[in-house]
Amino acid sequence: MIVDRQGRRFRNLRVSLTAACNYACSYCVPDGKRLVAAQDELSAEAMVRGVAYLIEAAGIERLRITGGEPLVSPKLDHFLREVARLGLQDISLTSNGQLLARKLPLLLECGIKRINVSLDTLDPDAFKRVARGGDLPTVLQGLEEARAAGLKIKINMVPLRGQNHEQVLPLLDYCLERGFELRFIELMRMGHLARDGASFQQQFYGMADLLENVASRYEYIQAAAPVDATALRYEIPGHGFFGVIANESVPFCRTCSRLRLSSTGWLHGCLSSSNRHYVGDLFDKPRHQALPALQRLLMKALADKQDIAFAGGTTIMKIIGG
Ligand code: SAM
Question: Which of 203, 207, 285, 295 could form a disulfide with 290 if both were Cys (CB 3.0 to 4.6 A apart)?
């Protein structure tokens, strides 16, 4: 097992199935340009082999399928069916929910039990401004159907000052009423925001403001979370739970166990590092050739992790897999 001097190792793999997305969220991509699939994206078969090799070489236990938008990818069906047979402890998915109702039968058939859906506002106009694609009623309908089907649902919200921060309480109410766990994600200095510090500062709505906002309506207490969890978890007794991924205010690099695989076959050991390691060619090789080479690259990827705090990175989240 590859472990660094801080005792960190890779346990959680995030696979970006495609860089393509049907949204162009303002904090994720600049200029409202939707991203299309890269020409050199790996096939579903190669990605499944890659996941199997990474389970062996790195000790991956949990898989999250992300993107881009995983539900727009034609690879989803094959990929999901095959990774479901690899004996992972958990397989989950992060989506914007636009195609959730349509893909729900497939998710259920493949044994998916929990999903994270990104939803930044319940206000249709603000939704158009932030997501720059899709439509709110379809997402809400998909969420109702997923809930009725028994999926465990977390909602990801990136609060942005002046754009959707007044939606913190409406979204929290919406989630608590439905048994969804709301995750507030502090804005990260990724992509264009890593280059434009003024825009980042202007929009950043941090954990202190957020918790003050929540406290104006609810009493909450800290709740337990796994050691390598990225979110701080809180309970609102009698109502439910919410979490904060406070990459700026309470960095979690010391316990980070995440590894990311891009849709074009690059490993990223850290969101905050511009280093990446090409492994796509190894997934076409037999196991005995691929694993030793993969292990050497995994050591490099692990060394890319920040010691303490997230500093940002110029790569767009949709490319690395948010
Ligand atoms: N399309 C899917 C979705 O919308 O959830 C998966 C990909 S998206 C890149 C994954 C997550 O990254 C989303 O929850 C999104 O809000 C988050 N994200 C993207 N850019 C971010 C940024 N600059 N700061 C914080 N979160 C970001």
Answer: 285
The alpha carbon of 29 and the centre of ligand 1 are apart by a number of angstroms equal to 10
57: left (phi over 0), alpha (psi -120 to 50) or beta: alpha
Which residues have C-beta atoms less than 6 Å from ligand 1?
Answer: 21, 27-28, 66-67, 69, 94-96, 118, 156, 158, 185, 187-188, 190, 193, 317-318, 322
CATH architecture of 12-320: Alpha-Beta Barrel (3.20)
Q: Ligand 1: which of 16, 22, 28 to mutate, most ligand atoms within 8 Å of CB?
A: 28
Closest by CA to 22, choosing from 36, 12, 10, is: 36
- Averaged pLDDT in 10-residue chunks for the chain of 322 residues: 90 96 93 79 98 97 97 97 97 98 97 97 96 96 98 98 96 98 95 89 96 98 87 96 93 90 96 92 97 97 84 66 64
Q: Which residues of 283-321 are buried (b: 16+ CB within 10 A; e: fewer)?
A: beeeeeebeeebeebbeebbebbbeeebebbebbbbbbb
Nearest protein Cα to ligand 1, atom 21: 28
